[in-house]
Amino acid sequence: MKYYLFPLLLILIAIDFSFSQDKSPTETYYKLFDSYFNYKNYEVFNGLEYVDEFPELIRTKETNNKFYDSYDFIKGLIVYNGEPYYNLEIKYDLFNDHVLLKYLNKKINYLKLNSKMVSQFRLKEDKFVRLKNNLALNNFYRNGFFKEGYKGERFSLYVKYKKNKQEDLNQGRVVYIFEEYKFFFVCYMGALHRINSKKDMLKAFPFREKEIRTFYKNNSSLLKSSKEHFFIRLVKYLDTLNHINTNE
Predict the structure, then answer these.
(1) pLDDT mean for each 10 residues of the chain (248 residues)
(2) Angle 136-141-142 (CA atoms, 0-180°, nearest 5)?
């Protein structure tokens, strides 16, 4: 938790009112709050030292790695032990399912955070949340981080990212090639369903059979180009429909 002096709280709250409305008051407040203190005192800087087990990869195939979006650290948000921390340099290891934090001192360069203490984090515009495990997620859960593709009133979509490695011996030494996989889960009224096809959607939501079939027919090109964006649009569409069935 953050424990600071009451007079400073009043100063920061007063400053917050002067900012434009394009930023949320909460985000602006925390950024101002954190700017007055040494970031190394943050509670979030608490974890095990991280050492990359594939350091040779960056010298051979910079675009192929085990991380989400980029090998480089990206400025982002972490909610750690219930507290939000902005503008931290983080990246997400999809091979081991760990959130990493850049922390430079004389002995340590990177930290592997305690996953149970991270409730969510953001990389650029992408939000990842730590879901509670259940039967639908059990085989894919790992540390529990899922991308929030769409969050609606009744329907939501979550995506589990994962990378596996293969060995490439063509360069005279072992080089690891990583392949990315995505697994989709639709949440309806609190219940999660693993979705991979139209058949899965129809089985999970038979009361929307007509709408689902029509959506697949009208958006076949999107399905071929990006399955993730297809499911995001489909789930958003289903969430906006009015109740037409008493069983819904």
Answers:
(1) 40 38 48 43 67 68 82 92 92 95 71 93 96 95 97 96 87 82 96 97 97 98 98 97 54
(2) 160
